[in-house]
């Protein structure tokens, strides 16, 4: 393996170090032409400010609740509608299979604890949320 070339101090004083990057002061600032196929829009694009709506999520339960409707903005007591939950139907099938086929299997469909409750706005009719049993 050969040794590196010897250092020559005269060479470094006569020649400035090579510039890797051009200096910002040496070049003029010129406008770069747009890419091929660029079309200037006829009208300036104005972006409209976006409206942010904050909705405070309330926890719905099995009973009617006082809320502010996010659709119509009124403060009201929710209108509730109860429907059998999936737990009520599974319990009905299980009781029927275990011998309660003489009507006892229908008991879970009548118990409030086995019902899902849908909450709606009485003013505009919008559905606000659902309480799921179990």
Automatic annotation (TrEMBL):
The chain crosses the membrane at residues 86-109. This is LITAF domain-containing protein. It is a peripheral membrane protein. Keywords: Membrane, Metal-binding, Transmembrane, Transmembrane helix, Zinc. PROSITE patterns: LITAF. It is found in: Endosome membrane; Late endosome membrane; Lysosome membrane. Residues 1-37 are annotated as: Disordered. PANTHER family: FI16602P1-RELATED, LIPOPOLYSACCHARIDE-INDUCED TUMOR NECROSIS FACTOR-ALPHA FACTOR. Belongs to the CDIP1/LITAF family. Signal peptide: none annotated. Residues 49-133 form the LITAF domain. InterPro entries: LITAF, LITAF_fam.
């Amino acid at each position: 393996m050969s040794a590196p070339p010897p250092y020559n101090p005269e060479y470094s004083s006569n020649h400035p170090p090579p510039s890797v990057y051009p200096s910002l002061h040496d070049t003029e600032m010129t406008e770069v032409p747009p890419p091929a196929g660029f079309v200037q829009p006829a009208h300036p694009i104005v972006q409209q400010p976006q409206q942010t709506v904050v909705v405070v999520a309330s926890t719905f339960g099995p009973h009617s609740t006082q809320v502010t409707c996010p659709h119509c903005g009124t403060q009201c007591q929710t209108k509730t509608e109860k429907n059998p939950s999936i737990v009520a139907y599974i319990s009905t099938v299980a009781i029927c299979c275990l011998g309660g086929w003489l009507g006892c299997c229908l008991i879970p469909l009548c118990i409030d604890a086995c019902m899902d409750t849908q909450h709606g706005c009485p003013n505009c009719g919008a559905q606000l949320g659902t309480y799921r049993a179990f």
